[in-house]
Amino acid sequence: MLNIIKDEKKAEYIELIYDLIFVYIIGRNNSLLHHTVNGYVTSEAFFSYILCTLAIIQIWSFGTFYLNRYGRFGARDCVFLFLNMYLLYHIADGIHSTGEQSFWRFNIAWALILTNIGVQYFIETRNHHDSSPERRQLRRKGFILFGEAGLVGVHMLVYSLTGVSIMYVPILFGIIATVVSGKIDSKVPVDFAYLAERVMLYVVFTFGEMIIVIASYFGGDFDFSTFYFSLMAFLIVVGLFLCYGTVYNRIIDKEKVTNGTGYMLIHVFLIFALNNLSVSLEFMQDEKINLIQKTVLLVGSFALYFFFIALLGLYSKKRCAFHKKFIISLVAVVLSFIILMLLFKEQMYVNIAITVVYVFGIFIMLFFRDKKSLKK
Q1: Does residue 33 contact residue 279 with C-beta atoms inside 8 Å?
Q2: Cα gap 211→205, rounded to integer Å
């Protein structure tokens, strides 16, 4: 890789405000799962939720990549960022509303945001006449964004003619093209410490949404049941946060030289898992939702979250690497959790306690993983 020396970057206040809009949109997007029939979330609502969530997080990741490598936060960067923030409100309204108009608002805003970021990449080529790898990388990223924006346009055309949504096509194109581009452009590293900080802050904001969700556990008359379930729900969120915090603070190698593509993709799905966990915790309080469905969603979301936590081990310090024995132990704990949760699915007092033990069990595994590595 090229040895590119840059001044240390820190997250700007405008970036944090930008992230808050995404958290707001994700909160609105979660409302899609409240469309139920006979206690079941409809398949149409569930797939819309998945696709909208991935599209939103993908937009965030594209913008974050650009700001990481080339953001100077001058007038141009701020204007483009504020324009995207405005368009994101139209996406939020398109998610929450129903009807033909909301479809067009969501997709036109989505295409315009992708085009906006793509334009920034092409403008940036003017500042890299002396670096062929940088210029090639900038053009590729720009073409990827224009390509996905074009596929959003195709999606709108197909829907208008047939009523069939192919929203998954531009999303899959963006993911695949990003992976391929990352391998090709491996000679152009990101500022990994800054990227890790930006992603961590977004994860923290996502936990903020989860904290708001569990407020429902504190409502009603204060009795043993309210005390027990509110405490358990709070401990689950604390445990999940401690797991990520341990990986970020103690295990991730902030000085690693990387193009950052894999790290960002892992977080796209890790944040997606956290959003699912927020919905799952909300559903566990809702007696209208079918017990099997909400238990499977909860268990699957936990498994997905810790799967991507484990993948972050690819970016660990050498002394903290997740070796085979640790991964096998982690898989065994996850499988035990799944079995116990399905066995005790009707015993709410028991399964929420199992969840707390499971989360803190993995936290202890991660924490002492770092402690043991320090002794070596």
Answers
A1: yes
A2: 10
